[in-house]
Amino acid sequence: MRPKKTRWVECVPGERCFKPLCKPLSKLEVVSLTLDEFEAVRLACLEGLKQVDAAKLLKISRPTFSRIISSAHRKIADGLVNIKAIRIEGGCCKIKRR
Prior knowledge:
Blueprint: E1 7-9, E2 17-18, E3 30-33, H1 35-46, H2 51-58, H3 62-81, E4 85-88, E5 93-95
Parallel strand pairs: 1-5, 3-4
Antiparallel strand pairs: 2-4
């Protein structure tokens, strides 16, 4: 397996874990969203960028961006539908300096 290319992210989340109010975190299953998945969602969904433009900002290919955003959407949907906590952690990312 080829090593993953470093992704460059601008936005580090202020909160690292989001959970439903109905249960304590200790009783919830957790879905882990990587920093590059978080950044992909921010760029595509919040900023409204096209995949090709968002991929350039992350310094990855458009097909790789597509795989990352699909994985992020699946994980977020799993957390929302199945009442799980969503934790943002890990990934092969470096933070861009502004």
